[in-house]
Amino acid sequence: MNIIIVSIISLAIIGAIAALILHIIAQRFKVDEDPRIDEVEKLLPGANCGGCGKAGCRNFAESCVKADSLEGMLCPVGGNNVMKQIATILGKEAHEAEARVAVVRCNGTCQYRPQINTYEGAHNCTITHNLYAGDTGCAYGCLGCGDCVSVCSLGAISIDPDTHLPVVDIDICGACGACARACPRNIIEVRKKGTKGRGVYVACMNKEKGGVARKACQVACIGCGKCAKECKFDAITIANNLSYIDSDKCKMCRKCVDVCPTGAILAVNFPPKKAVEQVVSNNSVEPTTQSDN
Amino acid sequence: MKTFSIGGVHPRENKITAGQPIVTAPLPQQAVILLSQHIGAPAQCVVEKGDSVKVGTLLAKANGFVSANIHSPVSGTITKIETVADGSGYQKPAIYINVEGDEWEESIDRSESLITQCDLSAQAIIDKIDQMGIVGIGGATFPTKVKLMPPPGMKPEVLIINAVECEPYLTNDHALMLAKADEIIVGIEILMKAINVDHTYIGIEDNKPDAIELFKQKTQKRKDIEVVRLQCRYPQGGEKQLIDAVIGRQVASGALPVSTGAIVQNVATAFAVYEAVQKNKPLIERVVTVTGKSLTKPGNYLARMGMPISQLIEVAGGMPEDTGKIVLGGPMMGRATANIDTPTGKGTSGILVIPESKAHRSEPSPCIRCAKCVAACPMGLEPYLLSKAVAIGNLEIAEERNIYDCIECGCCSYSCPAHRPLLDYIRHGKGKVMAIMRARTSEKSNS
Question: pTM for this structure?
């Protein structure tokens, strides 16, 4: 009996002493952390995608709390909504940023860009790209092995089994840019997202001269410059035999879509419009509105 | 019989063109000369559209230390300087020449006579080799002059001539050895003088008994050149493997082969050196083995550079109907070409036509951890682990396990019973790891 009491008492004393030591150490080495960091982190999506340019969501939350102003800080996945809530918590001014979305700048489906050889190596775009020009004649187009799909932490991008091209779900895409960085051919670009996801862009990255590009793909940009002449907003530039539409300047009038001889310029998510649907290029390729983006 | 110490495989040899004499291929109507026919910086074009050139006229100058001159293999007029799709399908800069007649530069000695006397100094020989655009034509196309000038502190003791030709199907070196033995021996003497060594080993695999006999007979009276009979084993033609097989020294991880005291040169390169130094002839033609079981006239053809491979296949009896794949080089290290009109270059040792029924890889299945790849790897690596590490993006493990030592011989993929594309991943990871290592060293040297 005696031994039990002695044990309990001695254990209690040891426990009390240890608790005291731990308490003193905890007080001495306490790290003062702003409780707002936790609050901000809770608001963030937690995808740790790196789209904000920080190492992860926690790191972004810390930077938001530290920063004097929220200008230029944007969680592309959470968007303006989340940034507004963060601004309220931190008592800072909210800065509206335009919504952006990943866009696949290649429209080389099997129909437009026939397969000329078979690739049987490792199923990986970067490996294929380093090895050779790909199983079609185009050395700039999509290889279809899905490096972009495997890096997307939100599951917003998938390969269409019919066209073998990646398709971005604009409702899910957080514009973090991981797919754009993974693509060895830089086909994916993060562009301004228009109302209802509308967008006008050149769906081609082929920098070869017009003849070579066209031989590889029916809907290749041949760098003719018609679109640039047509554009009233200076949104289109031609470099390296390739047209580029600046999404920040584009007013989406779609005049360039109408004049493009090869149908390389796509206008997506617009309601069907007769004038657009009737455009028929020289090779009867139909560059109509596409809803797959 | 000697061979290298670890790994290796012995694929079926299939040397169907062995023993066939060298046949000169007809001139093409149009020659397309790639500006990058060697490892290193592409050469810089020194001619213009409309210029008329002779055989041997300098077309492009070496651009930097690791680069090589390119001379015209044909005579005619330059029609354009543009791009051409090479074997990979990517557009590369090239010079198009419309072939007119066959007029050679006067400085080139076209006679058949053997010139054994060479009075040039070592430096003059190296300069000549540099000027004539000689590269290692065993396959890697590394500029020969760079190999002949080892970094300070490394003293070559011995020259090893690579006459192994371990790739299945290829017989171009074999044919050249039988036809030009005397010239090759003079070439070896010149190389020995250039690097100042007094002993040479010629490594020949025992599937070429006639070549071994011939060279033994030619060198029996001399002590400085020794023929070494080697057991057939792939990749014995690899520089590190050959040094191991012949003199029993191993190249340390990350070190240059010359650190073992041996300089390795291909037997065809020795012949090119003879022609360059003694005959003033630049590297403008080479023996190409056009082979494949479905071809009607496979053989060893002496072809000028810049000839479309489709024309060489025509010479060899025409493209068989059931062709499924055309490989540039041998079946182990060669690459399937995406374009049959790609021109030949200094490194085109063979053109292998494979019928459709044999052209495809088998569907890969999961790794069964049998470690056949580990046993086959001649560099002592763990291919299954490296490929997995690269596939999941863990380059730290790949670097720790010496991925940069891979010589890309393909023994791992060849031996894998699950048909996994091991080398595809390892090659990719090797490139990435080496880029990281280079960035790290340049960062260190900057700070």
Answer: 0.85
The answer to whether residue A124 neighbours chain B at the CB level (below 8 Å) is: yes
DSSP output for B357-421: GG-PPPPP-------HHHHH-TT---HHHHHHHHHTT-HHHHHHTTGGG-----HHHHH-TT---
> CB A127 to CB B424 under 8 A?
yes
Asked if B428 and A122 come within 8 Å (Cβ–Cβ), the reply is: yes
Of B85, B360, B425, the CB nearest to A122: B425
Tell how strand A265-268 and strand B323-328 pair up.
unpaired
Confidence of residue A112 (pLDDT cuts 50, 70, 90): very high
CB atoms A120 and B361 under 8 Å: yes
List pLDDT tens digits, range A223-250. Answer: 999 999 999 999 999 999 999 999 889 9
- Which residues of chain A have a CB within 8 Å of the CB of B428? 122, 124, 126-127, 130
User: H or E element: which one contains A22?
Assistant: helix A2-28
| Residue in B85, B90, B421 nearest the CB of A122 | B421
Dihedral-angle region of residue A144 (phi above 0 means left; psi in -120 to 50 means alpha; beta otherwise): left
In a domain, B100, yes or no: no
By residue range, what is the domain housing residue A61? 36-90
A110 plus A165 within the same structural domain: yes
A151: distance to nearest CA of chain B, Å? 11
Domain membership of residue B69 (yes or no) is no
**Distance between CA atoms of residues B303 and B381, nearest Å:** 38
Distance in angstroms (rounded) separating the CA atoms of residues B286 and B346: 7
Distance, CA of A35 to chain centre: 31
Task: State the pLDDT confidence band at A274, using cuts at 50, 70 and 90.
Answer: low
- How much is the mean pLDDT over chain A? 87
| Predicted confidence (pLDDT) per residue in A13-37, tens digit | 999 999 999 999 999 988 888 888 9
Residue bearing the bigger pLDDT, B49 or A34: B49
Residues in chain B closer than 8 A to A118 (CB atoms): 360
* pLDDT tens-digit readout, B317-368: 999 999 999 999 999 999 999 989 999 999 999 999 999 999 999 999 999 9
Q: Are A80 and A111 members of one domain?
A: no
B150 found inside a domain: yes
Most B CBs within 10 Å, among A117, A130, A132, A140, to test the B interface: A132
Mean pLDDT over residues A86-100, rounded? 85
